Automatic annotation (TrEMBL):
Residues 17-26 have a biased composition (Basic and acidic residues). The chain crosses the membrane at residues 44-65, 246-271, 291-311, 323-341, 395-415, 463-485. The keyword Nuclease does not apply. The keyword Transmembrane applies. Pfam families: PqiA. This is Uncharacterized protein.
């Protein structure tokens, strides 16, 4: 064991001497050459065409429809009909009044009050004013009530109803008038699609969010009406006007400006002759490129968040969302950019290797690993100079420290993933009574797109499947694959630089932190945003609130810890296996780790 340690110390000291030589004469690294001159014109044309086409696809995504919000009501707005009857003229506020007064059960009582007790009899104008002033109906809706006495008189029901307006004889006689009344108001008494719900049975159900029995609905279609189209510019305007300015600002920066800026920076990286500038650009594009996905996660959360089923008196209100081609195009354009960044990074790495061949053998051995490994060797050299044993202790401590951070990251991810990350509450009435509460973790938030309720009568199954699968790939599969590669590297089971580069590339796609950003900015003013999306309307009757759960904060801690591990694991691997997969490690991180190791060594002395 002592001989093995001596060999390791001697090998590390030789590497440090070579790194010192390179740091004193870094002419090879300071040389200038551009990728445009290094590779053929055909390659340059192809990469330029790729960036132009990517920008065009992104532009289509920004101008197209990303999603559609549907309702079984033609339009959820205070000035429009709220039922499935196209001739209904009563508003959602009228529906609330109707339900508060007892609906169909007390209709004849309210009619008797205006026609008999106030003396309006069959005077339509008088009855209209009575329903407006005494009950709060809109004038248009009150007209539907006002014609009932006149209709009953014409049908010969006056004598029967004058004795007892609640009698079966009166109700039977007035059936034709009632049909006219319900067609006029649009209230749900005998609609084209009838569902039987009992309030008491609904309250006894454990899941009050589902009020439509799937078996009862089987074979009976529900007619949905588009009430809002999610377009990039329109949604931003509505979010800004709906007091969701944080959502609008962050989406503009990361999903509006950043995608096009990335293409410009990639073009600059292709043309610039500075190796250092190109390395820095590609490094930060790899790290920050995934934040373009904010828009994808925002749309996904909106589609999940707007879903609701509510029973307001006799009126069933159902709202659901569907993905559209524009959001899929945006997702594909983002993946395209990811691939382009990785492709250019590979060309850059290859060009450096070829460039280093022009240097002498001693310089080539060290410059092949680039600055990150030299930074590691630099702080290792400080320990070697004081005591040969320090290098082994430093390496052991670094590996243990990163391994502990990896285990912490895995624990945070597992616990955070199965914990509640986001909760939606559907409320109704002025008191904002909660009628439905839906809780999601990191898995169910994505798979909700494929739930029975979301897919029933859906016209966008391919888009919903694409969005769900991409979500699971980005926030579940990619992080787990990277962490598997990390632990294999720390245990010494993986020493192939290609596998380590693969892990680094997959980390570009892993975007739990971006999902958390989307969750935060959507729930921050979700109620105001939903009210704005629905028009000025129904906010006093129905509302949807969003809140973050404990899983959000656990995954936030995971994002920090896992980022720490990814930055450090390559340093530990590079020190052990004498190669660096890419320029992932910064001087800042190695100095921090070096300080921790140095403190540990000193305390041991």
């Amino acid at each position: 064991m002592s001989a093995m340690n001596d060999d390791m110390n001697e090998d590390l000291q030789q590497q440090n001497r070579r790194s010192d030589d390179i740091r004193t004469d870094d002419s090879s690294l300071s040389s200038f050459f551009s990728l445009a001159l290094k590779y053929s014109r055909r390659t340059g044309y192809l990469q330029t065409l790729s960036l132009v086409l990517n920008a065009a696809l992104m532009l289509y995504a920004h101008l197209g429809v990303s999603g559609v919000i549907y309702s079984n009501q033609p339009r959820v707005d205070i000035n429009t009909n709220t039922t499935n009857n196209a001739t209904g003229i009563c508003t959602l506020k009228d529906t609330e009044v109707w339900n508060a007064l007892g609906g169909a059960a007390n209709r004849s009582t309210t009619n008797s009050f205006c026609s008999q007790q106030t003396g309006c009899l069959v005077d339509v104008q008088c009855n209209t004013e009575c329903f407006v002033e005494n009950f709060g109906y809109s004038t248009a809706c009150a007209d539907c009530f006002a014609v009932l006495p006149q209709c009953g008189l014409q049908n010969g029901c006056a004598f029967v109803c004058a004795q007892d307006s609640q009698s079966n004889e009166c109700q039977t006689c007035n059936l034709p008038c009632q049909e006219v009344f319900y067609n006029c108001t649009g209230f749900f008494s005998s609609a084209r699609y009838v569902y039987h719900h009992r309030r008491r049975e609904q309250e006894e159900q454990s899941d009050t969010c589902i009020i439509i029995d799937a078996e009862e609905q089987e074979g009976t279609p529900i007619e949905y009406y588009p009430v809002y189209e999610i377009k990039f510019l329109n949604a931003l305007q509505d979010a800004w006007n709906g007091d969701a300015k944080l959502l609008a600002f962050l989406v503009v920066i990361f999903s509006g400006i950043w995608p096009y800026l990335k293409n410009i920076l990639l073009m600059f990286a292709w043309m610039t002759p500075s190796i250092e500038t190109r390395s820095t650009l590609l490094k930060w594009l790899k790290r920050l490129g995934k934040y373009t996905l904010v828009d994808v996660y925002v749309v996904l959360i909106l589609l999940v968040g707007v879903w609701l089923q509510a029973l307001i008196g006799e009126t069933t209100i159902m709202i659901r969302g569907e993905a559209r081609p524009a959001i899929v195009a945006f997702l594909l354009a983002t993946f395209w950019e990811f691939w382009h960044i990785e492709w250019m990074a590979a060309l850059h790495q290859e060009s450096l290797k070829e460039h280093n061949k022009e240097a002498d053998h001693e310089a080539q051995e060290t410059t092949d690993v680039e600055k990150p490994l030299m930074a590691v060797l630099q702080f290792q050299n400080a320990y070697n100079s004081s005591s040969p044993g320090h290098s082994c202790r430093s390496l052991t401590f670094a590996t243990f420290f990163v391994g502990l951070s990896w285990a912490t990251s895995i624990a945070l991810y597992v616990v955070g993933s199965i914990s509640e990350i986001l909760r939606f509450q559907t409320t109704k009435g002025e008191q904002r009574d909660v009628v439905c509460e839906r809780s999601y973790n990191i898995f169910t938030l994505g798979t909700e797109l494929l739930s029975d309720e979301a897919m029933r009568d859906s016209s966008a199954e391919p888009a919903m499947w694409t969005l769900c699968m991409a979500y699971l790939l980005l926030v579940v599969v990619s992080p787990l694959v990277v962490h598997l590669i990390q632990v294999l590297a720390l245990l010494g089971a993986v020493s192939n630089s290609m596998i380590l580069q693969l892990g680094d590339s997959i980390w570009t796609f892993a975007s739990v932190d971006v999902l958390l950003m989307g969750v935060y900015i959507v729930q921050y003013k979700f109620d105001a945003l939903i009210n704005r999306l629905a028009g000025d309307a129904g906010s006093d009757i129905l509302g949807v609130n969003g809140d973050m759960g404990p899983g959000f904060f656990l995954l936030l801690a995971y994002s920090i810890s896992s980022g720490f591990v990814q930055y450090f694991v390559n340093s530990a691997v590079a020190t052990r296996y004498h190669h660096d997969p890419y320029y992932q490690i910064d001087y800042l991180w190695t100095k921090v780790l070096g300080g921790l190791v140095l403190d540990d060594d000193k305390s041991g002395d």
